Amino acid sequence: MGDERDLSHHLSISHSKSDMCGCSLGKYGETKTSFDLRHHPNQTSNEQKKDLATFQPSDPLFEDSIDDHEDYLLPTSFGKQKLTYPRRKVKQNHKSLADHLFQTKPFSLILPRSTESMCKRKQVEMENTLESPSELILRSGMVLLKNYLSLGKQVEIVKKCEELGVGPGGFYQPGYQDGPKLRLQMMCLGRNWDPQTKYDEYYRSDGSEAPPIPDELIRLVKNALQHSQSLINSEDELPMMSPDVCIVNFYATSGRLGLHQDRDESFDSLNRGLPVVSVSIGDSADFLYDDKRDIGNAAKILLESGDVLIFGGKSRHIFHGIKTINPNSAPLPLLKQAMLRPGRLNLTFRQF
Ligand SMILES: O=C(O)CCC(=O)C(=O)O
Ligand SMILES: [Fe+2]
Q1: Domain of life here (predicted)?
Q2: ipTM computed for the complex
Q3: Whose CA is nearest to atom 3 of ligand 1?
Q4: Is the CB of 249 under 6 A from ligand 1?
Q5: Is residue 268 predicted with pLDDT exceeding 80?
Q6: Cβ-based burial of 350 (10 A; exposed 0-12, middle 13-18, buried ≥19)
Q7: How far does residue 124's CA lie from ligand 2's centre (Å)?
Q8: Which ligand is closest in space to the CA of residue 349?
Q9: Does 117 reside within a domain?
Q10: How far is the CA of 61 from the centre of ligand 1 (A)?
Q11: Which residue lies with its CA nearest to atom 7 of ligand 1?
Q12: Residue 347: pLDDT band by 50, 70, 90 thresholds?
């Protein structure tokens, strides 16, 4: 990529050509940090040094991390709120920031009625209706169930995620304290996971616990797994699992997620290749995957609303990530019935 982007409004990152993510050690990858401080027109070099001192090493999840949509910047306002703003900014604007935080509403998946017009689409987009289900075996242990979820089921899931997402333990923008944030909103069900604390912290920094995974979602995951096992005619290639963690991500149309492995689950779970089951709703996304963390060679598939992707067995350790969210690609009936805001909802289920 070789481009420069502003990070947390202070720091510019340079990505080398060979390593698009330009980062990190840590759990998710093997490559070295290559963040560069570049001249920023509004900063003196002393200020730059100060920022570097408070900067946390990133990981590939933060690929191109940039907070370019202010409305998604603030965490939800439940319990004791821990400020995650760059220190300098908090000191300078203490009062106005505090005022702003108290006024902040939790992140909502649903468009407010006043913005309903944002859903209006051109006639041609009326063709974005749901298609019939089909299946693709992508490689050993990796299955894509196209259009697996009915429209009704998708609407139900959006509503359930909205209900949980605006409550305690709901959506927030994860990242490092005083450091970069992921380009998405996240909440965990069943058990907390966070890019900084992994599965170690039972309670989130705002004191909340992960809400339980709804039973109907657990059933859905097991059914999708059984369906996939019968398709490949093997329970060894794709073992069954019982989800006790669900990470719910919402990507605005500018959202993305760097190539990474899901490898914070227990040794036993990873060792047995217990699958990750991933559900996509809303705008479609270009999903990359590869055995190595090699953005140039990664395979690309389109994940559309209603698709279920499963990767377990020999594919459990694939590097994967979201390259782009395709704006205005969500099925119109879904938008009308669920009033989902522009972007993509993704749920990944795992057994810890
Ligand atoms: O959004 C997706 O499809 C992938 C999400 C993901 O990889 C994760 O949450 O670990
Ligand atoms: Fe992942």
Answers
A1: Eukaryota
A2: 0.99
A3: 346
A4: yes
A5: yes
A6: buried
A7: 34
A8: 1
A9: no
A10: 10
A11: 321
A12: very high
Residue nearest to atom 8 of ligand 1 (CA): 348
pLDDT of res. 130? 64
Same domain, 72 and 164: no
CB-ligand 1 contact for 262 (6 Å cutoff)? yes
Q: Ligand 1 center to residue 328 CA distance, Å?
A: 20
Could you give the number of structural domains in the chain? Answer: 2
Q: Which token pair is 178?
A: 């005083």
User: From the CB of 288, is ligand 1 less than 6 Å away?
Assistant: no
Asked whether 346 lines ligand 1 (CB < 6 A), one says yes
Whether residue 203 is contained in a domain is answered as yes
Do both 44 and 81 map to the same domain? yes
Range of the domain at 47: 4-103
Please tell me the distance between residue 50's alpha carbon and the centre of ligand 1 in angstroms: 33
In a domain, 64, yes or no: yes
For 224-261, the pLDDT digits (tens) are 999 999 999 988 999 999 999 999 999 999 999 999 99
| Residue among 182, 348, 349, 352 to mutate when testing ligand 1 (max atoms within 8 A of CB) | 348
42 and 140 part of one domain: no
Tell the residue nearest (CA) to atom 10 of ligand 1. 262
| Residues 32-81: tens digit of each pLDDT | 232 222 233 333 344 433 333 333 334 566 654 333 332 222 222 222 33
